Each structure stands twice: as structure tokens, then as C-alpha cells.
Amino acid sequence: MLAEGISIGKAFGIPLRIHYSWFIVFVLVTWSLTIGYFPQAYPHWNLVTSIFAGVITSLLFFASVLVHELTHSLIARSAGIPIVSITLFIFGGVSQMGEEPRQPQVEFRMAFAGPLASLVLGGIFLAGWVWLRSVPQFEFVAAICRWLGPINIFLAAFNLIPGFPLDGGRVLRSLLWWRSGNLNSATKIASNVGRGIGYLLILGGIIIVFRGDFISGLWLAFIGWFLENAAAGSYRQLALQDMLKGHKVSELMTHDCPVVSPDMVVLQLVNEQILTSGRRCFPVVRNDRVLGLVTLHDIKAVPRDRWGAKTVGEVMTPLSNLKLVGPDEELTTALKMLTEQNINQLPVVKDGKIVGMVARDNLLSFISVRGELGAK
Fold first, then answer.
1. Most CB within 10 Å of its CB: which of 6, 23, 51, 361?
2. C-alpha torsion angle, residues 75, 78, 84, 90 (rounded to 10)
3. Mean pLDDT throughout 37-41?
């Protein structure tokens, strides 16, 4: 889901994105500051000044969240972990790593770095407020610093709650992993703590709702629900990877992989191949050279009345945009690529030729059967 959104540039070579859900929380924070905080703290301000302060403060707050995530990412990258992107969304920010840390010491440094950055930012903003609050000309800047200081310190404290996948949960997992040497056991404990904290937040939210503060209570319960789901999902993901470990793509790929010509008309492909075979994906090949892949998704993007006028080569996904996997790579790699790219099939390539396909459905079926039988 978080792969979707709007690109806003790069920082230190790391792509930055805004998920569509971020606009909801941006509006809520801005509205709260404009209608609630600034008019109460500075009653002599007019509405325009409060709105301007609300927008600037909200943007700086989310910039602070980006700094928090960037610090995680830069520490991770210094340890050799590739960073795919950083995304702002309704619950804050998330750094998408190309792989999980392989050593507990790396995870500890990476997890602790984010809250430390927020704590430093909080101190800087509070120092700015103390320095400028008695200077009338800088009241506007001081007011912004006054809110950003405590909120960054709160952000640091909240993220250090020892519930996975919060930063504090990662710190807890790294310490348990460091001590026991067992990543699975450490993840299970940290995830269970995270789920427990999620349930407590939901309970706290319900209590606050019954006390009359509907918005705050609902928001707290929503955060608790998100944390509980994220904690459970994190452990399930690790369990899946453990189940697939040691198994190669060649064990699961389909070898019967009919190819089509780029000159074939889309309507012909639909009538002669897709409707008769039920296949959803075809490699596009000319003179034994793979040009790309045409999928049901590609075809559905073309208006039905244009199927007779478009060729496969015009609607396919070109090879340069495809994610490919080798037959000797582990199934964990294939699952990760399918999940990150939100696609259903991966071409399996050896020596420049497509030798098969691995599909999400096959992987899920493989996982389901082995899970039911308790197989490793």
C-alpha cells in the first residue's frame, strides 16, 4: 500500500514519498493548531496569522518526522542495508529497507538513532523558544518553536515504547536477539509486547471516548489498532521467510511458459490465448530476445474498443521496467519482490532467456500447505 503516493524528491539519494493518507493527518494537525492551540496561546493573533502559523508548524512537524526517518535510513545504509524509500503517511513516516538487519548491533544503532534525532530536534526548538520568547519581533517564530519542541520530545518518547515495530520494539528485539542469538524468538517476544501495547491503546481510546473526547479517543484507538496489526504482521512476515528459507525459485516456477510476438494484436491475444488458457501473463519475445511482459493488467488499461488496433508490443511492460528473478534464487527473494512491487508474477530468467514464471498464487499455496502440515 505504501508503495503508492507522490514523489517529492530525494534526500541523500533516498527517494521521498507522500502517501495519499498523509493529507488527512496534515489537515487535522493544521486545523488543530489553527483553531485550538494558537488562538488559546496567542489570543491577540488574528485568524490569518493563526492559519499561517498552523500551516508552517504542521509542515515543520512533518519535516521533523522526515529527519527522524532519514536518521534511521542513513545509519542503516552505513551498515550496508539498501534503502528503497521513505514515505510519510497517516501515522507518521516509514523507511522501506531493502533487507532487514543481519546483526543485532546494527538494528540497535539504527532503531535508537531515530528517537535520538527527534530528541535533539526537540531540544533545538525549545532552545529557540527560550531564546526568542522575550523578543516581540520574533514572537511568531518563538510560537512555532514552543509547539515543535515538546512534540518532537513526545515523538522520541512514544517511539521508544518497547513494542515492535516501533523503534523501542526494535531496540528490545535487538537486545533479546543479541543475548539469545535467536532472531525468531526475539521477534515473537517483541511482537507480542507490541500487540499488548496496541490493545492497551485501544482500551485507552475507548475510555477517552466515553469520557466525552470522541476525536482524541478515536485517534488513540486507531493508533492502537494500527500498532497491533503491524506487530502481528511483522512476526507473520518473519515466519513466512523462515518457512521459505532454503527453497529455490526453480522448485515452484512453472516451466510451461508460452511466449507471444510483439506484433500480435491485443484482441487476438485475448481470444486465442487468455480466454482459452486462463493465463494472465505472457513473455513477449522476438528472435529469442525477451522484449517485455504483457499481463491482464496491461490489457485492461486499454479501452476494449481499441484492442483490435493495438499490438502487444504497444501495451506490454518493457524489459527495462520488469523485475526478474533467477531459478537459483531463494523463494524469499521472489516473495519480497512480488510484495514490494505489488505484482502477481515474476519472469524467471537464466542466461538472458525466460525459463519459467513464478506466481504469487503458487507461493501462497506453497506456504499454506506447509503451514497446515507444520513443515519447515
1. 51
2. 10
3. 93
Phi, psi of 155, deg, nearest 5:
-60, -40
Rounded Cα distance between 228 and 166, Å, is 11
C-alpha dihedral, 223 to 225 to 230 to 232, nearest 10°: 150
pLDDT tens figures, 306-342: 999 999 999 998 887 777 888 888 888 887 777 766 6
List all residues 6 or more positions away from 299 whose beta carbon is below 8 Å from its beta carbon.
266, 269, 270, 274, 307, 315
pTM of the model: 0.73
Residue-range domain boundaries for the chain? 6-244, 249-373
C-alpha dihedral sign at 300, 303, 309, 310? negative
The pLDDT-based confidence of 4 (bands split at 50, 70, 90) is: low
- Cα–Cα distance, 189 to 302 (Å, whole number): 49
**Cα four-point dihedral sign 178, 179, 185, 186:** negative
The CA-based angle 222-228-229, given to 5 degrees, is: 90
Angle between helices 47-78 and 139-159 (to 10 degrees): 40
The domain 249-373 is classified under which CATH number: 3.40.50.2000, 3.30.70.2470, 3.10.580.10, 2.40.50.100? 3.10.580.10
% pLDDT > 90, the chain: 47
